[in-house]
Specification:
This protein has six helices and two strands; from the N terminus they run H-H-H-H-E-E-H-H. A hairpin with a 5-residue loop joins strand 1 and strand 2 (112-114). The chain has helices at residues 6-16, 18-28, 34-57, 66-80, 135-144, 149-154, and strands at residues 104-106, 112-114.
Length: 155
C-alpha cells in the first residue's frame, strides 16, 4: 500500500511540527479557563498529527504547509470539535469560521446551515410587512378627486 516508515515520520513530526504547534496552541488558548487549556492543547496537537499523517498517506510533504496546518488545527479546536460533557456550552455556537463568521441557522436536529442575517430564508424577519395603503393608490385617488396632498393631509 504505502512504503512509509511511521517511526521516522513521527520523529520528524516531533522535531519539526510539534514545538511550533505546542507554542501556537499555548498562545491561542491562554485566555481559556485553566481546566480547558490542557485538553484543548492536546486536541490541537492530535488534529495536527491527523492532518500531517493524511498528507503523508496522499504522498504530499506536509513540512512546507506547517503554518496553514497549525492555523486550521487551532480553528478546529475552537469551533468544530465536539465538546465533552464537562465543557458543553449553555448556548450553541452558531457562528462558523468557514462562512466568514455569519450566523448559522439551526435545524430541528441542531444541524447548522449558513445564512446571512438579511437572507429571505431567515424566519426571524417578517419580509411581508404591510404598513397600510400603497402610496401609488393614494396618489391616484387624490388625482381623481382633484385634491392636493396638503389638502388631504390637513383634513
Amino acid at each position: 500500500m504505502n512504503n512509509l516508515n511511521w517511526q521516522v515520520e513521527q520523529e520528524r513530526f516531533m522535531r519539526v511540527a510539534y514545538p511550533r504547534t505546542l507554542k501556537a496552541a499555548q498562545h491561542a488558548f491562554s485566555g481559556w479557563h485553566v481546566s480547558k487549556q490542557d485538553d484543548s492543547i492536546a486536541c490541537c496537537i492530535g488534529k495536527m498529527w491527523d492532518q500531517w499523517s493524511r498528507l503523508l498517506l496522499r504522498g504530499r510533504d506536509p513540512e512546507p504547509m506547517i503554518a496553514g496546518l497549525i492555523r486550521y488545527a487551532l480553528l478546529f479546536v475552537k469551533y468544530d470539535r465536539k465538546p465533552s460533557t464537562v465543557d458543553r456550552a449553555r448556548t450553541p455556537d452558531v457562528y462558523d469560521f468557514r462562512s466568514g463568521f455569519k450566523r448559522q441557522m439551526l435545524s430541528e436536529q441542531g444541524e447548522a446551515s449558513p445564512t446571512d442575517r438579511s437572507d429571505a430564508a431567515n424566519p426571524w424577519i417578517n419580509w411581508h410587512v404591510q404598513a397600510g395603503d400603497s402610496p401609488c393608490e393614494l396618489a391616484a385617488a387624490l388625482e381623481e378627486t382633484n385634491v392636493t396632498l396638503a389638502q388631504w393631509y390637513d383634513s
